[in-house]
């Protein structure tokens, strides 16, 4: 297969929780991007986008993290992030935060940087214009649309098109695709009972598909869904979209 | 027939109240069914309008504009309403509003008043004040009647009794209306309410209503309804008292062309609701002989003063956010401890009340954004929720509050994220610290303290032995070695 | 200032008024750049206003909507209104019908009892079988008919108490969109105005739609064809088909004084 086009220097913003809890997602993202002929860089000073602090109300703690992100990625040709909620944080809230800091220079920096920031699936479909990335994954899979990808980023059926092009995959649609899984960051612990009730609906929908794997563009939702599926001993696993797209024929 | 109104000042925190609702399986079934039905209908009629997004944008701009010139428009409304024979009263807060309404009802000489469903009167607990003055308030909206007779609480802006099943309603009607026989079909129950209320409509001489819109340009009031109980109240009694938040004002009659498309489709999933009434002051031989409008602030100006929170006042009370909200759909309305439930309640209540009474409400959301997506006037509810969370945190971390475990944890995490080396160290530390909790298959089934909420319903897989950055470092090193 | 105060006298009222207005001025977004009227003109209204359906389809749309609400629709030409009214009343088995002052005499068929509403009280209205009115206009998009307090339509109570409403609507009164209607109503905006879209209804019990709670439970509409569509084949250099609408009302004013 030939994916040769202008090779890009892609800076990967792995996100704090993928770095710590889901390194396989990062490895898979690197594999896919390199297979497509691009170079992947990892600015090592990166940590967290600030979403958890911001969304929980600790805005003072979140503000320095915006500056940190800008410093780390200002020279990037393209920034790829395998987490739709972190990208939503940047696009929807960073400009607000710069406003709160009354920092004109930061606002200018964001105006330049943010258009270069892409969620992983979005980078493939919108920036590179691809649907088939040469993957093979002969399993039954269902796709969970995370809320931030669906509503804030408007990913639409981009991820589904990517999945449909995977060799050997059997993609099974889920009931209530647009329904939140109930993760919601600190919501999952602050409102544990409601979150668990929402999760129960989601795991039921996942199980009803008969899929072996539930995939998404967000490991945060998946960690929550996986936790529920494992607690119920269902045998259904979760996997980030990048890990499916990294699959190769053996 | 006094019932204790939902009061944020005394209601339990949301997670606690939600737990109670979650155990009520009948309630959850009813709520889910009702919200599913309305959502499906809404989707269909919204889908019919190719200009829906343009209508939403116009709706938002009209509301934004009305707030920017609110003082002028209220004065204009007052002038035009009074010129047409109405009387306009101003109430700074709930207490003042209650006093005005009770005085007007007393002056009208009524021992009974008929009421149209009104969120505003619920907000100020008007019925209890009327009762204290010896005036019996009769709710005439079918759902509100069910709530009143059942000594219950409304749980939805548009369909306040959606948590009740037909069997429960039948029980209430049999008991409270003193009936011997009553069928079980919804039509039988509606018929019973029709008969019960018609007697009241024909005799009671004072009515109390809310308002959907006040039109500054003409001094008119607009009420949107389905059952005709509104029309009964607006048309038959001698005295009509309308109470409206100052945020209800619209600049011009023409603005209704937007609102009357947005509201019914969003609220009940109808192209138009069965009845809209628009009237201006008094009209000879048609409608009441005395007409009063009470314009109430009750902290709306405080909301107006907050640039981030201000958009909350765009709300036209359609309830679409409630139907779309995955949290509301699990818990129903009572858990919100206020007449305003669901996402709009989670942002409105903390702003109308003292925040201390509603600190848990801004957190009653997974920030999924479904509310913003359906809001007909484009209130960015998730953004306002986050803004209010910040206010809560500021309030909770004052003085000794900064030592609360969550605040400390957030502070420490903030510090960690500000430095690469600290972050790397924390990752290593985490791996070591979680070891005692990890079982043989590599899963964690129990977590201590705040994190216990997680393992209540979910397992957590153990941290991998290598972080991504460690893998990437190693790879780079190897590549350099090869080079 | 939020406390327990007696509000009885005017000074207190003006004090509350002054204070609320003062709070608003202090709270609202900083000084708006232009006056209210100019700012209002700038509101973006990119939604549909003008009709995009031909007249015949607008009528079909209205009919569909009305039937969707379980209303019956009868058709007639202006000269046959009385006959159509008789058919509807007969079919519904209604005898005693209230009408507003100004209802055209030639509408009223013999063999029924029509009572002119001279400020009848609610009890009296409650005893009658139905009400017959004209209409101000109708909106096809939403299946809405608008009544105002004018001759032939009358007081709001008269269309509320009886259980049956028979409404005579002229095709020339049917508009497609809500904005068209509101702009038309602007001239008479301060008259008591009622929009109704089907009979009263509720879905308060388990979301089951029940027709008729307090208002009339039964609605029939007589749609009077006062517009003739003239279609002709045009010459070769013109568009192939053209249609114009002519209101018969303008040709036979006596037949169509709907108020």
TrEMBL record, chain A:
<feature type="domain" description="Cysteine-rich">
    <location>
        <begin position="141"/>
        <end position="225"/>
    </location>
</feature>
<dbReference type="Pfam" id="PF02754">
    <property type="entry name" value="CCG"/>
</dbReference>
<dbReference type="InterPro" id="IPR004017">
    <property type="entry name" value="Cys_rich_dom"/>
</dbReference>
<dbReference type="GO" id="GO:0005829">
    <property type="term" value="C:cytosol"/>
</dbReference>
<feature type="domain" description="Cysteine-rich">
    <location>
        <begin position="10"/>
        <end position="91"/>
    </location>
</feature>
<dbReference type="GO" id="GO:0016491">
    <property type="term" value="F:oxidoreductase activity"/>
</dbReference>
<protein>
    <submittedName>
        <fullName>L-lactate dehydrogenase complex protein LldE</fullName>
    </submittedName>
</protein>
From TrEMBL, chain B:
<dbReference type="InterPro" id="IPR024185">
    <property type="entry name" value="FTHF_cligase-like_sf"/>
</dbReference>
<dbReference type="InterPro" id="IPR003741">
    <property type="entry name" value="LUD_dom"/>
</dbReference>
<keyword id="KW-0677">Repeat</keyword>
<feature type="domain" description="4Fe-4S ferredoxin-type">
    <location>
        <begin position="305"/>
        <end position="327"/>
    </location>
</feature>
<dbReference type="InterPro" id="IPR024569">
    <property type="entry name" value="LutB_C"/>
</dbReference>
<dbReference type="Pfam" id="PF13183">
    <property type="entry name" value="Fer4_8"/>
</dbReference>
<dbReference type="InterPro" id="IPR004452">
    <property type="entry name" value="LutB/LldF"/>
</dbReference>
<dbReference type="InterPro" id="IPR017896">
    <property type="entry name" value="4Fe4S_Fe-S-bd"/>
</dbReference>
<keyword id="KW-0249">Electron transport</keyword>
<dbReference type="InterPro" id="IPR009051">
    <property type="entry name" value="Helical_ferredxn"/>
</dbReference>
<protein>
    <submittedName>
        <fullName>L-lactate dehydrogenase complex protein LldF</fullName>
    </submittedName>
</protein>
<dbReference type="GO" id="GO:0006089">
    <property type="term" value="P:lactate metabolic process"/>
</dbReference>
<dbReference type="Pfam" id="PF11870">
    <property type="entry name" value="LutB_C"/>
</dbReference>
<dbReference type="Pfam" id="PF02589">
    <property type="entry name" value="LUD_dom"/>
</dbReference>
<keyword id="KW-0411">Iron-sulfur</keyword>
<keyword id="KW-0004">4Fe-4S</keyword>
<dbReference type="GO" id="GO:0046872">
    <property type="term" value="F:metal ion binding"/>
</dbReference>
<keyword id="KW-0813">Transport</keyword>
<dbReference type="InterPro" id="IPR037171">
    <property type="entry name" value="NagB/RpiA_transferase-like"/>
</dbReference>
<keyword id="KW-0408">Iron</keyword>
<dbReference type="InterPro" id="IPR017900">
    <property type="entry name" value="4Fe4S_Fe_S_CS"/>
</dbReference>
<dbReference type="GO" id="GO:0051539">
    <property type="term" value="F:4 iron, 4 sulfur cluster binding"/>
</dbReference>
